[in-house]
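Researcher: I'm preparing a figure for a lab meeting and need a structural model of a single chain. I don't have an experimental structure, so a prediction will have to do for now. The sequence is pasted below. Please return the structure as C-alpha cells so I can convert it later.
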Amino acid sequence: MKKFLSSIWFLALVIAVLAIIFFPPVFDKYKADLEYVEHNYGEIFQVYFVDLNSDGVKEKIRSFEDGNGRLCLQYFSNSKIAPVDQLNFSNEYNKNVPDIYFGDIDKNGFTEIYGFKINGDSLFLNWFEPYPDINGKEHSKFITRVGLYDTNKINIGIAGFYIIDLNRDGSEDIVFPVSSGYSLKPRNIFVFDIKNDTVYQSEYTGINQYDLNFTDLNGDSKFEIIADNSTSGNLKDSIGNLHTDNVAWLQVFNSDLTPFFSPIRFTKGMRNGVKNFVVGKEHKSILTFHFSESDSIKAKVYLINEFGKKTDSVYLPDLIPNESHRVFRLNENKFFVIEGKYLTRISADLKKLGTTILPIPEMASVNRITNLVGSKRQMVVTNFFREKLIILADGFKPIIELEFEKPIRSFTKWNNLGGGKFFVISGSSEYYYQIRRNNFYFLKYPGYLLIYILSVLFIWLLQAARMSQIREKLELQDQVRELQLKALKNQLDPHFMYNTFNTIASVIKQGRNDEAHNVFIQFSKMVRSNLENSTKIYTTLKDEMDFVHDYLSIQKFRFKDMFEYVIDMDKNVNTKLKIPKMLIQIHVENALKHGLRTIKNGGVLHLRILNERPNVKIEITDNGIGREKAKEGNTRGTGIGLKAIQQIIELNNQKGRHKITQKIIDLKEENGKAAGTKVILLISE
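Model: Understood. Here is the structure written out cell by cell.
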C-alpha cells in the first residue's frame, strides 16, 4: 500500500482531481453568454416582454416614473435602443401600485396595457391599447376607496392580476385581489366585468388574499376561486371583521365572489399563511400547505375536499418554522417545499418522498422553477444579498453561476428571439443572457484524461528533476570526500611529521625533557584531531583555530628565531561558525613554507579574526618573499595547494552553506619590492 501511495500514478491522480476541482468551468454542460447590457437612469423601473400586435415577436416594455412623477412606459420592437413610442398614464406614479399588466380582453389581436392609479383615497384601473392606433385613448375605471393612515398615507398592493371568463358568458373579466397593510382596507377580491362595465367584490373579512386558483371543484361548469393568504396582524380587534387577521384561513369563493364554503381556520400563530393547489381530476381536492414562524406550530399539509372538510394531513417536521417557505408544483402529483437549502418532496396523496440538500449558499432564496433550456425545468436561486444568481438543473446541480455588483431586482425569461434567453435587472442595469450548450462539454472526460496524463508527465518530470538533483548532490559529495581525503593525506605531511619527531628526539637528547613533553602533547593533539575528524567535511572556527595554534607553536619550536606569529581574535566572534576543514591552516602553512622559510630571521605571520557583521573576516598576513619569488625558488608545496582550497570554497557555496569569498593580495614596498602576502577570507554568518 505504501508503495502504491507513493507511486507516480496515485500522486498524479491526486493532482488531477485537485486540478479538475479548481479548474475553470470549461467543460460545463451549459454556459451563459452576456448578449448586451443596458443602463437606465435611476432604479425605479420594470421590464416586460409581451407580443403587443400578434406578430409572433415580443416587444420590450419598460415602465418607469418620468420627470413629472407619472407612471410611463416605453415599448420597443427589435431595436434595443430607440422605443417605438412612450405612453404616459394620467395618474402619478405610486410605489404601492408600480406594476403594469397585459391582456387581449377584446380579442382583436392587439394587447392592452393595464396599470393602477391612486387619486386621493380612490383606486382606479387605467389601460391603453397601443396597437393598431399608437395614439390610442387612455381608459379608466374606478375600483374602490382605500383606507388612509397617519392622515393621508396609503399602504396597499395588487396581489395578482388575472384575465378569465369568470362567469362563462363568453367575454373576459379582470380579477385581482387588493391587499393592505396599515391602510386596513381594502382586503377584497375584485372583478371587473368589462362586458357590463361593472365592478363587484368579495365581502370584506379582514384577510389579505393573493395567488388565486381558478377551478371547477364541484363539476357545475362554473369557476370557484381558491385564495392563498397570510396573516398581517395589524387589525386590533375583530369588530366589523368576519375573521381575525392573525390566523390563516382557507377561503374559497364562487364566481360571484360569495363563499363557496365556510372559511377554514388554521392554528393561530406569528406570521402564518396557507398556500393552495388543486389536485385530482374526477374528484378534485385542495392541497393546502400551512406554515408559521411560531416554534409551536409545525409545518403541515392538508387535503380538503369540495365540501371544506379536512380528509387527510401530514406534518413536515424537518422544516424550520418559517412563514416564507416556497412551494412549487413540479407536475400534477409532485410538489417541492423549499426552506433555505432544504428541499422536501411531497406527493399529491401526502406521501413524503424525501429531502434533498441543495448545493446553494446558506440563507439563499429559490425564486422560481422555470424552463429555460432543454426539456426539463431549472431552478433559479439568489443568495442572501441577492448579488449572486445560480441556476440548478440535472439533479439540482449548478449549471450557471453569475455575480453582479448590485442586488438583483428581478429575473425574467426572455423568449423574444428563441429559447434559453433571460435577463436580470441589477441596480439600474439590464443584463441580457443567452444560455447555450457548451461545445466543449463532450470533451469533458477526454479533457479529464488529458489532465491526468499531464499530471503523470508533471510528476515524472518532477521526479526526474529530483533524481538529477540527487545525482548532482552525490557527485558533489564524492568530490568533497575526494578533496577531504586529499586534505587528510596532506594535512600533516610526512616531512612535517618526520622533522617534528627529529626535533623532539634532539631536545630529549639534550636533556630538555619538559620542552619535549610539551611539543609532543601539542603534536599528539593535532594527530588525534586529524584522525577523529577524518570523515568530517566541516569543523567549527574554534577547532580550526586550535589546530592552527598547535601547528604554529610546533613550527615556532622547530625554527626558533626564523619567525614570530601573532593571533588576534575579536571577543564577539562566533566561534561556533561552521567552515570547511583546513580553510585557515592551509593558508598558514603556505605562508610559512613559501613566504617565511627562506628568510633567516625577522619573519612575522599575523593571523586576525574580525567580526564584521554580517561576515566574519579572516586575515593571514606574512612579510615573506612573496608569491612570485616563491615560484622562482620552486618551494615545495603542501600537496593540496590553493587550487584545492578554491575547489572546496566553490563546493561549499554550491551547497548553500555560509558563503565564502577568498582574496589574495601581493604586498609591495614603495619601491615595488615584494613585502609579503595577505589572504582575506570573508565568511557569511
